[in-house]
Design brief:
Layout (H helix, E strand, L loop, with lengths): L1 H38 L2 H5 L5 H28 L5 H12 L3 H22 L4 H10 L4 H15 L19
Amino acid sequence: VDQAFKKLARWHEFQYRMKRNLTNGMLMPVLLIHLTAILGPFPAYILGSRSLGEYLISAIIILAMFYVPLGAIVFICKFVPKKGSARILLDWITLKIPVLGPAVKALNIARFTRAFSMLSSAAVPPAQAAEQAISVTENYFVALWFAPMANSARNGNPLSEGLSSKKLDDYYF
């Protein structure tokens, strides 16, 4: 039991570190977007070719290009069901976004493997450990890659029979 609580504590530390790293990683780009929105149209205002109203509208338009897609993403994430075809499509699109997609994929695979390791070491049966580890992956498309593992274990077969090298990188095999 002591080892299970230690692993659970490490899991929560991992979750905290991931959120902190994401927040810190996004701080500079968000700051640059806001500085660009404020300073970009500023020379035209100073030189007199734009009024204060035109300057403010220019800054708002630049910020809208950031906040409108961000708002749409937040809205979709909050109101699209966690399962189903809409979630699969959204998560698939997320995986295709350059830079972000590979990071989301790696994060969700790491979540699955860490949770599965923690549950396995706590003597949770393999099929149940796989199912619970799948539930902590936030990208439904990635979770579907691991679903055959639980089915394989339920049928009395090795977990590895449920994995497909076509879905996961060769690194994991």
